[in-house]
Specification:
- The complex is a heterodimer of chains A (228) and B (293).
- Chain A has 228 residues and is of the alpha/beta class.
- Chain A is 41% helix and 21% strand.
- The longest helix of chain B has 31 residues.
- Classes of the chains: A alpha/beta (228), B mainly alpha (293).
- Chains A and B meet through α2 and α3 of A and α6 and α7 of B.
C-alpha cells in the first residue's frame, strides 16, 4: 500500500499484516509514516494498493463504513471530544451498538480499568489531564467492541507510571477479548515488550520486520532504528 | 406599571420568535462555522407554503406540522445540493453561497407567490386576559407558548438523545466523530433540516404580526443575528436568552425612548450587535474556556 497527502507521497509500498488477536508494533522515527499507515487503514488519507480487513477490501470505503466493520482507531492527539462530557464521549463509543446489556457490562468493565473516569463522568472532557484523556480514548475504543484496535502513540506525553498502567490494560484486553492491536509507538522498548511482532518504518518503507523478542535482542537493529 | 408589563410581555413574544430564528442560526453555525444568511428567506418560503395550505382549506394545526416537515426536508435537500459541494471551500465562498441562496429563495418566492402583502391568520384570538392588571393578548401568550415548546423540543433532542449527541459531536469534531462510526455528512444535513424546521416556526409565528411578503423576514433576521451574537453565536441556550433580551429591549426602546418609535427599533438591534462585539465578543454564553491551567 502507498499513500500520501496531495502531491506528497509518504508511504512507498508498505506491506504488513496483523493476525487475529495479534499485537503488532509499528515503530520508527518521526515522519517515517506510522500515523499515515493507521490513517490509511481507516480511510483518513488517500492510498492505493490493497488493504484487506477480515477478507474484505477497504478500497474506497468511507471511514464510517470501515469503523462499522470493527476497527477502532485512537488517533494521534487521542480524538477526545472536548466539547462533550466524559460520559458523552463514552456513550459515543457505544454509538453503533444495540445490545443494551452488553453495553452496560462494558461500562462497568472500563470503569473497572479506569476508576477515575467514573468519578469524572459528568465533567467536560476538556478538563481531563493528558493521561486521563488517553484513558478516556482507550475506554471509548473498548466500548466499540472492536476486532482490531489501532493505537497511535498511547504513551505520548504521559508519565511513565501512567504509561505502564495503560499498557497493562491493553495487554489485558488483548488477552481476554482476543482483540488484535496495531500499536504505533516512539517508545520502542515498551512497544516491543507488549507486541509479538514488529515493523520498523523508515521514510515510508518497511526497513525491518520480525518477532519482537528477536528485534529487542539484535543490537544493530536497536542502535540504528530504535535508538536505545 | 401595567403598560410596562404589557410591553415586556409583548417583547417576550417577539423575543420568542427571534429566539427560534437565532437558534436556527446557531445550529448551522455550530455545524459549519458559518452564519446562514439564507435562514430568514428559508423561513419566509416555508411560511408561504403554510399560507398556500391554509388557502386550500387545510386547518391551521394540520398545516403547521406539514409545513415544518416540508421545511425539514427542504433544509436537508439544500444542504445536500447547494452546500455540500462547497463544504470545504473557504469561509468567504460559503458566505457568498448562502447570500446567493437568500437572493434565490427571495426571487423564487416573488415568482411563485408575488410581492403583495398578505394578512396571515393567527390561531390565537386578539382578545386579552388580565395578568397582574396588565392586559395580555392571547396572541402574545400563544406565540410565547409555541416558541417555548419548539425550544424545549430542540433542547431535549440535542441534550437527551443519542441522535442529538451525534449531531453535537459531528458539528464540533467531524474527524474524531467519523472514527466513532458517526455519519458526519448526514448529521450536517440533519442539522440543516432541523434549523430549517425551527426557522419555519419563527416565520409562521411572525407572519400574523408583519404581513406575509417575500421580504418579511429581512428585519426579523437582523433581530435574530443580534440575539445570536448577544447569546454567544455557538450557544443554543444563549440564542434563546439573547432572543428574549433583544425582544424586550427593542420593544421597550420603541415604546419609551423618545425618537425611537417603530422606525428606529432596528437601529437598537444593530446597537446591541455592535455593543456585544466591542464589550464581550464571545457573547453571554459563548464558549466557556474551561481548560486545565
Amino acid at each position: 500500500m502507498s499513500a500520501g497527502y496531495g502531491q506528497t507521497r509518504v508511504l512507498h509500498g508498505v506491506s504488513m499484516s496483523v493476525g487475529d488477536g495479534d499485537v503488532v508494533a509499528l515503530l520508527g522515527a518521526n515522519g517515517a509514516g506510522k500515523t499515515t499507515t493507521l490513517r490509511a487503514i481507516t480511510g483518513g488519507v488517500r492510498w492505493d494498493g490493497i488493504i484487506n480487513f477480515g477478507g474484505r477490501s477497504l478500497h474506497r470505503a468511507t471511514t464510517e463504513a470501515i469503523v462499522r466493520l470493527g476497527i477502532a482507531h485512537v488517533p494521534e492527539g487521542r480524538g477526545v471530544l472536548t466539547e462533550l462530557t466524559v460520559e458523552e464521549n463514552l456513550r459515543l463509543g457505544a454509538y453503533l451498538r444495540r445490545d443494551g446489556n452488553g453495553i452496560a457490562k462494558d461500562y462497568d468493565r472500563v470503569f473497572g480499568y479506569f476508576p477515575i473516569l467514573r468519578e469524572r463522568r459528568k465533567l467536560s472532557a476538556s478538563t481531563l489531564s493528558g493521561g486521563e484523556q488517553q484513558m478516556l480514548a482507550l475506554a471509548r475504543a473498548l466500548l466499540m467492541r472492536p476486532k482490531l484496535l489501532l493505537l497511535d502513540e498511547p504513551s505520548l506525553g504521559l508519565a511513565p507510571l501512567v504509561v505502564r498502567s495503560i499498557f497493562d490494560i491493553i495487554r489485558a484486553v488483548n488477552e481476554s477479548d482476543h482483540v488484535a492491536v496495531l500499536l504505533v509507538e516512539q517508545n520502542a522498548r515498551i512497544a516491543l515488550d507488549l507486541s509479538s511482532r514488529a515493523y520498523v518504518l523508515e521514510v515510508g518503507r518497511v526497513a525491518v520486520e520480525g518477532e519482537s523478542a528477536n528485534l529487542k535482542n539484535q543490537e544493530s537493529v536497536r542502535r540504528s532504528y530504535l535508538g536505545y | 406599571m401595567q403598560e410596562l408589563l404589557q410591553q415586556v410581555l409583548s417583547g417576550i413574544a417577539s423575543g420568542g420568535i427571534y429566539a427560534s430564528l437565532a437558534l436556527a442560526l446557531v445550529l448551522i453555525y455550530n455545524a459549519m462555522g458559518l452564519v446562514n444568511f439564507a435562514q430568514g428567506e428559508m423561513a419566509m418560503f416555508a411560511t408561504f407554503l403554510a399560507f398556500t395550505l391554509l388557502g386550500r382549506g387545510v386547518s391551521y394545526w394540520v398545516a403547521l406540522p406539514i409545513t415544518i416537515a416540508i421545511a425539514f426536508i427542504g433544509g436537508i435537500v439544500i444542504q445536500r445540493v447547494v452546500i455540500r459541494p462547497v463544504e470545504r471551500a473557504p469561509v468567504l465562498t460559503l458566505v457568498i453561497v448562502t447570500l446567493g441562496l437568500a437572493t434565490l429563495i427571495n426571487g423564487l418566492a416573488g415568482f411563485f407567490f408575488g410581492y403583495l402583502q398578505h394578512p396571515f391568520p393567527s390561531p390565537f384570538s386578539v382578545e386579552t386576559i388580565d395578568i397582574f392588571g396588565a392586559a395580555a393578548s392571547f396572541q402574545d401568550l400563544g406565540v410565547i407558548g409555541v416558541s417555548a415548546v419548539v425550544l424545549v423540543l430542540v433542547y431535549l433532542l440535542l441534550q437527551r438523545t443519542t441522535l442529538g449527541l451525534a449531531l453535537r459531536a459531528a458539528a464540533h469534531h467531524p474527524e474524531a466523530s467519523r472514527l466513532l462510526g458517526i455519519r458526519v455528512s448526514w448529521m450536517l444535513a440533519l442539522g440543516w433540516g432541523l434549523a430549517s424546521a425551527v426557522g419555519a416556526v419563527s416565520g409562521i409565528m411572525v407572519a400574523p404580526i408583519l404581513l406575509l411578503e417575500p421580504n418579511m423576514m429581512q428585519t426579523v433576521i437582523i433581530y435574530a443575528f443580534a440575539a445570536a451574537v448577544l447569546g454567544g453565536i455557538e450557544s443554543p441556550l444563549g440564542a434563546v436568552i439573547g432572543g428574549l433580551i433583544v425582544g424586550v429591549t427593542v420593544n421597550l426602546a420603541g415604546a419609551y425612548l423618545p425618537g425611537v418609535g417603530g422606525d428606529l427599533q432596528l437601529a437598537v438591534a444593530f446597537a446591541i450587535i455592535i455593543a456585544v462585539l466591542v464589550v464581550r465578543p464571545n457573547g453571554l454564553l459563548g464558549r466557556r474556556a474551561v481548560r486545565r491551567a
